[in-house]
């Protein structure tokens, strides 16, 4: 596999927000993994990773008996599984006041990790007297069909066939409806929230179930990132622009490094030179994994180019792209491009300084993300592929056929790259949503490569696009800090004002 093919496969299966180490999935894909099993809320002091009960002060853990298949009536469709959700009622005004319910539509991973990094909902709950609910996506975390056993649920295509966005949305609708009934809160308005893949689900939920949710905050949601809707080159174009805007020399060094790595790897003892240059563990044996590891650091640095320090994916300084380019531009490194590139990678992978060597073969999956390989190769087939001559990555031409062929996950299962735009809309989205959509906020930060597939212009008075030139991946949903720039504070204020309007209008309609 060439370096360009490696990048193509990597980006095809990127789980919209995640960091790497590499492993091969059951379907032959190289999929990003988390190197550490620990997850930390950014503004919460106790160690949640050691709390097995879920009753950690931030939320309580509950389970809902969910049906396996919402869309057919075969006997096997009525099988059930336990779907996890997290709930915080600290600030809820209760059913007598018809106080609102804020629901996070879970992403492709462990719901606790998302809840602990969605501070916006916790911080706005007191203002709205809102109940908070975070629902885990089926086949992720602890929400496993077929007896709760991942090895069974993931064992073959017949078992995994119930993993889809439409089933997940139906799960959310069913759970929310039942929860409101049990709380005697049938008249409490529901607003859904989500970032990245969860943001896509939040927007689609509002469109598909407008009788359940009165509005949606869809942050960094690439709902247009599908075939014949968005250019396959835009994702890497944005990353190139991000690094080039920080330093032209930084851009040039990275761009020329790929060939140097390839040439070095072919030399006698070249792999050992690369291993030592990049402080790789002794199990390193393939330069293509090094290339993918470095490329992934660039991708995720662009996504998480936050204006304040973060530990969402890994401990990072504020504006990590700037710090990576400072490492590359360091004059003390002379003409040693590998030393410069190592310095940049070290910012991303080892900012805390605790790594003695980098294990590129780490196949751990503590956040339960592996189901995304299935989704990315069935319905979520996004054409993030190809590089122009000016790209920071090696140039290669996008090929539709190759992309679809690489997603043949099973001899009996074929990718459906055009299904999502048919199911949820995508082509001519402005005209489509103007006719039947309402009450959706689309936030996008233009530093985020996923913004290329986002809604960047308001569609109507109630379908509002908020765009932040310096924003990164769902930065608006993060915990606020005293160091937040004014533009980020203004974004959140605007979102709160819009949501307040939805809820006020709901109460007016309820009183009629």
TrEMBL record:
Protein origin, superkingdom: Eukaryota
Extent of the signal sequence: 1-23
SUPFAM superfamilies: alpha/beta-Hydrolases
Matches recorded under Pfam families: Peptidase_S28
Swiss-Prot/TrEMBL GO biological process terms: proteolysis
Keyword line: Glycoprotein, Hydrolase, Protease, Signal
One function term, GO molecular function aspect: peptidase activity
Annotated family: Belongs to the peptidase S28 family.
The name this protein goes by in its record: Lysosomal Pro-X carboxypeptidase
